[in-house]
Amino acid sequence: MNGELAQHTAKAEGRSYYSTLVLRRQLILLALLLGLALSFCVDLALGPARFSLGEVVAALATPDAVSQQARVILWEIRMPVALMALVVGASLSIAGAQMQTILSNPLASPFTLGISAGASFGAALALAFGVVIIPAAVEYVVPINAFIMAMVTALLIHAMSLRRGVTIETIVLLGIAMVFIFNSLMALIQFFSSQQAVAAVVFWTMGSLTKATWPKFWISFGVLVAVLPLLARHGWALTAMRLGDTKAESMGVNPRALRLEVMVLVSLLAAIAVAFVGTIGFIGLVGPHIARMLVGEDQRFFLPGSALCGALILSIGSVLSKVILPGTIIPIGIITSLVGIPFFLFLILNHKKTSW
Amino acid sequence: MVTLQLDRLSASYGRRQILAEVTTPRFEGGQVVALLGPNAAGKSTLFRRIFGLLKGGGEVRISGATSKRPVAYMPQDSGVNAVLTVYESVLLARMQGRSLKVQEEDLARVERALEALDIINLGKRHIGDISGGQRQLVSAAQALVQEPEILLLDEPTSALDLNRQIGLLTILRRLARERGMLILVALHDLGHALRFTDQAMVLENGRMIACGPTAEVVTPELLRRVYRVAARIEPCSRGQPQLIVEADV
């Protein structure tokens, strides 16, 4: 009788624990969303001309009610940059999250797999030697080069990974090899380039949101919106991948097919993001780790959690890049790493159980 | 009632043939079938071939199944470090191929599987934090939650203490009887096979060398030939067959 009672209690406890877990995660996602909204408004408010948060909210709610100057600054100049921070942060973080998931490796990210390095190489070809892979409007030559090289890198890694005997651990090593190859090629380009071209390449690789425009935002946003449901559709299967290929297979998942599809989708996300804003290495690695600590690895929460964490980190980075040295916008890639990494180290050292 | 019959089943990894023309009589729901054989005999490969993870010659004949996915497979244990609770990891197995929205029914099934294996109290724990034996029971729950008609378990007792081994095999036999499930279980303990299974099939170097009622298959002659162990089988005081190992051959 006592056994039955204990069983019943354990069952009720299990259910209530699960319900609490789900509720807690929903609240965390909500909190991240609110934090994001706040950071976005602060990002809009800051700059050479400062606005109060009230003015920003008024300009967002009723653009016609504010002065033309405020409208132009907020809507035409700052809005694409602030929105780009959200979209790029979300894209890179989702890309990192899914790379870590399908490769079962905590180090996987667009940066460590060489996708960012490939993009930098493509951009450097255009900036230093004027190499145009696909003719386009001047403004898009560098991003298109970067995008193509990023995708070529991703597909190359995938093609190599299909060879017999290549394990998922090897894929990460292949990515790291690509990083070194592209770094050498970049050094070679810089060696043969003019000083001016070297400066342009170095600035590009630092990553900067100031290159954002409305059309670039819409392209990045469009890709993000298209890819998200395709990933969400595989939510249960992706979560199962974290139990290992054999276990996932036993649950009816086809790991190879899923890995291919997800790799293509997230490479597209990462390539678009890097092509438009340059190399921002930190987000794709850390965004998912923070999300994992906050909401676990059930993809119903982990996918939106990663997107929100990535967007929030880059948005806060954008704010910090304006306030650290008033009057100067420090390239965002520098800020996210310098400020973010100590914070990240603090988190993983204090949350060992819920991190990788 | 569900039935399973293997007809000249083969499988290879590259050029290396692992299974050669494995043929069995028709096994029926309600039975527990032991899959026996020394290490590297092809037991896991046979399960993977039956489950459809490996292609090869021959045919897996399943009839009388009422569901679309009648077979569930529990692979051998492997360590995991995913940030998931036991409850979530079993829910995950239930939800594959379903919508993202979890229904009340899904949670009830998860609890039923955890309860059946007597691990409902592990629900809150992270799967990375539990012992190897507990993880094995969670794996069994992940297979069970899929409510299969045919259940393939690859060495489910290898990490369990003696009490848990007996507990799990008793539960499996009860589930087979109560739910009409056909359970194939790879075992190394022939004493357990004698005590808990109805039928046994023995693999050696990828070939089936014996198949039939367990008491007729597990004999001193088989132990000498396949395992190179001298042993005798005698009924214990309660009439259960008991394996007594005498020496290596």
List strands and helices in order, with pairings.
The complex is a heterodimer of chains A (356) and B (249).
Chain A: H1 2-45, H2 53-61, H3 68-103, H4 115-129, H5 138-161, H6 168-192, H7 195-206, H8 214-232, H9 235-241, H10 245-250, H11 255-277, H12 281-295, H13 299-323, H14 332-350
Helix pairs in contact in A: 1-2, 1-3, 1-13, 3-8, 3-11, 3-12, 3-13, 4-5, 4-6, 4-7, 4-11, 5-6, 5-11, 8-11, 12-13, 12-14, 13-14
Chain B: E1 3-7, E2 9-13, E3 16-22, E4 27-28, E5 32-36, H1 43-51, E6 59-63, E7 71-74, H2 86-95, H3 104-116, H4 132-144, E8 150-154, H5 162-179, E9 182-186, H6 190-196, E10 199-204, E11 207-213, H7 214-217, H8 220-227, E12 229-235, E13 241-248
Q: What does this 3D model show about the protein?
A:
- The complex is a heterodimer of chains A (356) and B (249).
- Chain A is an all-alpha fold and 356 residues long.
- Chain A has a single domain, classed as ABC transporter involved in vitamin B12 uptake, BtuC (Orthogonal Bundle).
- Chain A has 14 helices and no strands.
- Chain A has helices at 2-45, 53-61, 68-103, 115-129, 138-161, 168-192, 195-206, 214-232, 235-241, 245-250, 255-277, 281-295, 299-323, 332-350.
- The longest helix of chain A is centred in the N-terminal third of the chain and has 44 residues, at 2-45.
- Chain B has 249 residues and is α/β, with parallel strands linked by helices.
- Chain B has a single domain, classed as Rossmann fold, CATH 3.40.50.
- In chain B, 33% of the residues lie in helices and 29% in strands.
- Chain B has helices at 43-51, 86-95, 104-116, 132-144, 162-179, 190-196, 214-217, 220-227, and strands at residues 3-7, 9-13, 16-22, 27-28, 32-36, 59-63, 71-74, 150-154, 182-186, 199-204, 207-213, 229-235, 241-248.
- At the A-B interface, helix 1, helix 9 and helix 10 of A face strand 7, helix 2, helix 3 and helix 4 of B.
